[in-house]
Design brief:
Elements (H helix, E strand, L loop, with lengths): L12 H12 L16 H16 L3 E4 L5 E5 L9 E5 L13 H16 L8 E5 L13 H6 L5 H6 L8 H7 L15 E7 L4 H5 L3 E7 L1 E10 L3 E2 L11 H18 L5 E3 L3 E4 L5 E2 L2 E10 L2 H22 L2 E10 L2 E2 L2 H14 L3 E6 L4 H5 L5 E6 L15 H19 L1
Parallel strand pairs: 3-4, 3-5, 5-16, 6-15
Antiparallel strand pairs: 1-2, 2-4, 6-14, 6-16, 7-12, 7-13, 8-11, 9-12, 10-12
Helix pairs in contact: 1-3, 1-12, 3-12, 8-9, 10-12
The chain binds zinc ion (ZN).
Zinc ion binds next to loops.
């Protein structure tokens, strides 16, 4: 540190808020949200704006081949790997102003604050934004950070197409964000990500900071129950093979399992297809989704075993076939104790109310945690709502989360 006591440093909350509102105008919707899908013209404008701000703050820019952008502030010892923060600036079609954007602009505000006070860190700092985190236009989600972490190949990501058949490679080229750096060939000393919680827990507990210890493991299944279509009138109750009646028992159990594995267990049925979906026909086939989550893979394994056992029992009882197919899974990702503790210490020092938290949603930090010590900082969002144009966060929480980020990064960077 060169000047000023770093513990007394505070970010400029008004400047951060102004930047958030300015970026939110690109793709701003009538309802106050943002629609800035990955690799669109609007994404290009958003990227250009943030990169321009970074240059104004004296940062140097590198872009990798999947369009991840790294904005670097040198340290005293530039052979050290950078302490990095970041998130994403693409949004859902009915997205809000804060999801992702907050994490990127909070990083920029940390840099601006250090510039204001002439503070140089030992390790360099970097602010990153990752390509296509949302996965709305192109699948898979968390594409840029996933390629960076080697979860899938660059070629796989390049080949992904949107509903119009446009590929990631072509769209990335069109907006001018194919860089030269090989994804992953970029050292990271530690990684922090600030994000709105996207859930109601902090607000419900009236806490300002969520100290995130893990991202929940996720398993997605398709469950198919096969019965027999028959006329709703002539077929007496005892002689039916009603797939929907059997399916609803399994659906109820999915939710019951989520409840049984409190506090972090989640069980959701969000999608149901009934065949033939006709008022006077006994349903012959029902296909529905199951989404199970928990904070460790061992717990998700138990939930998986429970639902399979229950389905087998119901199938035996009713004689209907119940098939469960795992369609995708994401392991639980614990964060690094040093980073989690740095976040907690920062919240304490700053006098913000805080509580332990887990993330039920995926974030770029999940992939970074495979590469470097990683931690996340949550702040409340109104009613826990995100991926919605009404997504909202309070300026004082926005400021608080960024102050925690500043302190945590300074602690790591020295
Ligand atoms: Zn996000």
């Amino acid at each position: 540190m060169t000047s000023a006591n770093p513990h007394s440093l505070r970010i400029n909350g008004e400047r951060l808020w102004d930047s958030l509102m300015t970026l939110a105008r690109i793709g701003g919707t009538d309802k106050g949200g943002v629609c800035r899908l990955a690799l669109t013209e609007l994404d290009r404008q958003g990227r250009d704006l943030v990169v321009g701000w970074a240059r104004d703050a004296g940062l140097s820019i590198t872009v990798d081949q999947i369009g991840n952008v790294f904005m670097r502030r040198p340290g005293r010892n530039n052979s050290l790997p950078p302490v990095m923060t970041g998130s994403h600036i693409d949004t859902q079609p009915t997205g809000g102003k804060f999801d992702g954007n907050y994490g990127v602009l909070a990083g920029l505000e940390v840099v601006r604050t250090l510039n204001d006070h002439g503070i140089q860190t030992e390790a360099p700092l970097e602010v990153a934004f990752w390509t296509n985190e949302e996965g709305s236009r192109f699948v898979p989600v968390m594409m840029g950070s996933g390629v960076f972490a080697g979860a899938f190949t660059l070629e796989h990501a390049y080949a992904a197409t949107d509903t119009e058949g446009k590929s990631v490679k072509d769209e990335l080229t069109r907006i001018g964000y194919v860089g030269s750096e090989v994804p992953g060939q970029h050292p990271i000393g530690a990684y922090f990500e600030t994000h709105i919680e996207q859930g109601p827990v902090l607000e419900d507990n009236d806490k300002t900071i969520g100290v995130v210890s893990a991202v929940l493991g996720i398993r997605w299944y398709d469950c198919t129950v096969t019965g027999m279509e028959a006329h709703a009138g002539p077929t007496p109750m005892g002689l039916r093979k009603d797939a929907l009646q059997v399916a609803t028992r399994v659906m109820q159990e999915v939710v019951a399992i989520g409840n049984r594995y409190a506090p972090h267990g989640r069980g959701t049925v969000g999608m149901v297809n009934v065949h033939p979906n006709s008022r006077n026909v006994i349903p012959g086939r029902v296909k529905f989704s199951m989404d199970l989550r928990n904070s460790t893979d061992a717990l998700v394994d138990q939930m998986d075993a429970d639902i399979r056992a229950y389905a087998a029992q119901v199938a035996a009882e009713t004689g209907l076939k119940i098939e469960i197919e795992l369609v995708s899974h994401y392991p639980a990702q614990p964060f690094h104790a040093d980073c989690v503790n740095a976040v907690q210490r920062a919240a304490e020092r700053l006098g913000y109310s805080h509580m332990p938290a887990v993330s039920g949603a995926g974030h770029d930090a999940v992939y970074m945690a495979k590469l470097a010590p990683t931690g996340m900082i949550f702040i409340p969002c109104k009613d826990g709502i995100s991926h919605n144009e009404i997504e909202d966060a309070k300026p004082e929480h926005i400021t608080a989360g960024c102050n925690v980020l500043l302190q945590a990064m300074l602690e790591r960077a020295g």
